[in-house]
Amino acid sequence: MKRYGQTLFAGIFITLLWCSMAGAQPVFYPQLSKESRACVECHKESTPGLYQQWGYGKHFRGNVGCYECHGTDTTDRDALKHYNFRIHVIVTPKNCGRCHVTEYTQFENSHHAKAAEILGSLDNELAEVVEGNKAFRGRSALLVNGCKQCHGSIIKIKNGQPTADTWPNDGIGRINIDGSRGSCTACHFRHTFSAAQARQPETCGRCHLGPDHPQKEIYEESRHGIAYFNNKEKMNLESAKWVVGEDYSAAPTCATCHMSATLTQPATHDIGDRISWNNRPPVSVRPEIPDKKLGLKDVLPWKTRRENMKEVCGVCHSSGYVDGFYEQYDGLVKLYNEKFGEPGVRIMKMLKEGNLITKQPFDEKIEWDWFEIWHHQGRRARMGASMMGPDYTHWHGLYEVAKAWYMDFIPEVRERIAKGKRAGGEKVTAAKKLDSYLTKVLNSDNHRWFTGKMTPSEKAEREKERQSFKKRYLRKQ
Ligand code: HEC
Ligand code: HEC
Ligand code: HEC
Ligand code: HEC
Ligand code: HEC
Ligand code: HEC
Ligand code: HEC
Ligand code: HEC
Predict the structure, then answer these.
(1) 308 lines ligand 7 (CB under 6 A)
(2) With 60 as the cut, is the pLDDT of residue 16 above it?
């Protein structure tokens, strides 16, 4: 932030120079422009709360006024005549990027910027068809009020104004009419646009919560979250510079681990830079695979990303401790993938290809059961392990996976096989093929306890442990 202070005194010359230098860092304007003064004069009265928010933010201090963000020339499709001015209501990341080129470039090349590309996903089918209808301006009101408020809408403009089926919307991957993606105000609320606010876990927790990605809840139950909530006043959140181990040390927040600077690593607006697994699909994959599919540029190898994260942990922990954590986490991902994820995916594929279930998603109970196994419970287990939330890893995670797998999913697969065998024709072949695969899965080390096929030594070991527990327990009584 020092550089801003120095440039303050360089005055108009620097400002003009800055205007001609694309990619320069932001500078203070020496004074508020006459256009912005006019906006402010009127908006002080018409929207006093908004005016005050702007007054508390750093843009006010830098004389970045309403017109510097909302002003536009007449060629824009979203240009709206507003008193004596032309403005656009939505200020896009590209508009912010005029002054904040680093943050803009990093953000645009991240998963966040791609978050509106969910069309065609299973969850999208849920929102458009299963839960929704097309009665709201030809769209599903659920998609508009639900999914898209987090993921982002595709902005449409009518008479210079964004349409109600696409805005208000601060979704993280919103598709703007200037081609840029997302909204910076998803994390930097208007009109203060503060860094301090974005550093706090509640900001991320607006989207990162709930049954299918409970990062907020996991963080809250982790020791990191507890340390944060107990020491918030020691976190120095308002500091211009926020380097872990230098400006604060009490606890890490979401931003600390995923975005903010360390002594050797600059801050990043690409939240994928420190992530070595993608735990969202039915089987976890290394992030290079989905990142390339999404068309992200300069995709980092997972090992580099892991080193980046380890470097953050290393500010507060020893390297042995951190290596141990990653071994534990990898172990849990492998367990879920091999025991449930991979066989589940294969079984569902065989059911579909053999016409043992219909082509229509979600019209049969087994599809809901499998969807929840990987999309809810299986994610919770993996995500819990990744961020030190043992309750999510176990009780909300693998416990629920196992219960649904053995008590609902497997019995339903068996029913489908029996029905297929009775149906005649090609279904018989498909059912037999699936039967033999299922038998192989259930006879594997992972599942043979369920079919009563544990080896004698495994059985003896379980029995020994049961007896020893009983003894300990009884002695306490
Ligand atoms: C003469 C008074 C006046 C001036 C000058 C003025 N505004 Fe407004 N502006 C308003 C009022 C009143 C509204 C409507 C508030 C409402 O609908 O509740 C408004 C609405 C807006 C909106 C929202 C528009 C929408 O359709 O959602 C934006 C953005 C805005 N003004 C920005 C500006 C900017 C930027 C300037 C300066 C270039 C400016 N205003 C100048 C009075 C003014
Ligand atoms: C740093 C850039 C910036 C500045 C400065 C700024 N705005 Fe905004 N404004 C935004 C962004 C971003 C949005 C949110 C648009 C979106 O993404 O949906 C917004 C939204 C608005 C809206 C519509 C949303 C609402 O809550 O009603 C109004 C009205 C508005 N601004 C008025 C103003 C006025 C008046 C000023 C000056 C006092 C001002 N803005 C200064 C960036 C800015
Ligand atoms: C005309 C140039 C300009 C535009 C456009 C602009 N900013 Fe800024 N921004 C600045 C300046 C100058 C500062 C530094 C103010 C300071 O350090 O006191 C700043 C600071 C910030 C900060 C740091 C605040 C803090 O608490 O440390 C954030 C976050 C920010 N801007 C976000 C945005 C967003 C989001 C947009 C678009 C909606 C935007 N800016 C548009 C010039 C601009
Ligand atoms: C509360 C905000 C929120 C809502 C509502 C929401 N999502 Fe998400 N969604 C997220 C977040 C956050 C992630 C990323 C989780 C992670 O990285 O662990 C995500 C991930 C996804 C993914 C996986 C993306 C990938 O990279 O693999 C898809 C697909 C998806 N959501 C679709 C939808 C659909 C369709 C709806 C509506 C039926 C919806 N979401 C509702 C926040 C939301
Ligand atoms: C996912 C949340 C998130 C989004 C979206 C986001 N930011 Fe940030 N931003 C942060 C966090 C967290 C920080 C604080 C980093 C730190 O200093 O620890 C920050 C800091 C900043 C700063 C201050 C940098 C400095 O050196 O002081 C600027 C400027 C900024 N963001 C601009 C933007 C712009 C422009 C966009 C849109 C392209 C944007 N941000 C989108 C979370 C976000
Ligand atoms: C407005 C909603 C929203 C907010 C706020 C938000 N995120 Fe996200 N985030 C998403 C969605 C949606 C995705 C999934 C994008 C995709 O892959 O399609 C995501 C993905 C991610 C990922 C996975 C990235 C990758 O490359 O796989 C990380 C990490 C992340 N967010 C961290 C954060 C942090 C940290 C914050 C707060 C500083 C934050 N997010 C704020 C919606 C949000
Ligand atoms: C102590 C550091 C730390 C904190 C604090 C933290 N995370 Fe994470 N986060 C991680 C690690 C480590 C991973 C797993 C990285 C990997 O796979 O290599 C991760 C993974 C993620 C993912 C990817 C999930 C997926 O789909 O695979 C998201 C999204 C995320 N975190 C969001 C958040 C949010 C939101 C918060 C705050 C509520 C937060 N994180 C707090 C360290 C942290
Ligand atoms: C800003 C300092 C800080 C950073 C950065 C940090 N931690 Fe921690 N960590 C703590 C504190 C404080 C505790 C609680 C200490 C205690 O349990 O006595 C903790 C506890 C832990 C625990 C014990 C959890 C439990 O429930 O027993 C693990 C494991 C851990 N951290 C791993 C990590 C990993 C991995 C990273 C990086 C992804 C990381 N930490 C980053 C401060 C930090």
Answers:
(1) no
(2) no
Q: How far is CA 468 from CA 223, 458, 461, 472, in A?
A: 32, 16, 11, 6
Tens-place pLDDT, residues 125-139 = 999 999 999 999 999
- Nearest to residue 281, comparing CAs of 402, 121, 115, 130? 121
- Residue pair 61/29 in contact (Cβ under 8 Å)? The answer is no
Cβ partners under 8 Å of residue 71, min gap 6: 35, 85, 86, 87
- Identify the residues whose C-beta falls under 6 Å from ligand 8: 223-224, 227, 244, 249, 251-252, 256-257, 309, 312-313, 315-317, 322, 325, 388
Asked if residues 245 and 239 have their Cβ atoms less than 8 Å apart, the reply is: no
- Assess whether the C-beta atom of 24 lies below 6 angstroms from ligand 2: no
HSE value, Cβ hemisphere, 13 Å, CA-based, for 349:
8
Closest by CA to 97, choosing from 22, 186, 204, is 22
Check pLDDT > 90 for residue 18.
no
Is the model's pLDDT at 68 over the cut of 50?
A: yes
pLDDT in the model for residue 26? 67
Give ∠ CA 234-319-270 in degrees, rounded to 5.
65
Residues with CB under 6 A from ligand 4: 111, 118, 121, 123-124, 126-127, 146-147, 150-151, 207-208, 210, 213, 280, 290
Answer for the pair 196, 108: CB distance below 8 angstroms, yes or no.
no
CB 342 within 8 A of CB 310: no
Candidates 222, 223, 254, 258: which one to mutate for ligand 8, based on the most atoms within 8 Å of Cβ? Answer: 223
Give the distance, in angstroms, between the CA of residue 12 and the centroid of all CA atoms in the same chain.
42
Return the closest-CA partner of residue 333 out of 280, 408, 293: 280
Sign for the pseudo-dihedral over CA of 379, 381, 386, 391: positive
On the 0-12 / 13-18 / 19+ scale of CB atoms within 10 A, 96 is: buried
For residue 17, the model assigns a pLDDT of: 39
The CA 440 to ligand 2 mean position distance, Å, reads 60
CA 200 centroid distance within chain? 15
51 C-alpha to center of ligand 1: Å?
Answer: 11
Tally of CB atoms within 10 A around 160: 17
Q: Please list, in sequence order, all residues whose beta carbon lies within 8 angstroms of the beta carbon of residue 121, skipping any fewer than 6 positions away.
A: none
